[in-house]
Amino acid sequence: MVFAALFTAAVCWALERLLFRRLGINLRRGEHDLLAAVTGAAMLSLAVFLLCSVKMARTTVFAAFGVAILFMRRRKAAADIQADPARWGLRPAKRQEAGRLYEIP
Hints:
Layout: H1 2-23, H2 29-53, H3 59-81, E1 91-97, E2 100-103
């Protein structure tokens, strides 16, 4: 039962991340965390409604849907890791010092 609740929360969070990334919405960390549950839960509710309306409301279908969403989010997260250092708050060092390429502001 606890696993089901955590799995549902993770899928909600991943759906929200995918939506905001797709729409290009950039929020602060606090704002993002507040909207994650609400937006993701609404999207998951819509997905469950659509699955029920086409009579595919089965445990395996829900599990496969959730795993697919988490997998897609994982792939997008891997792409974020390869992003430029400026997105992480780093900037190029003013002088090239012994292998020091970036400095933390």
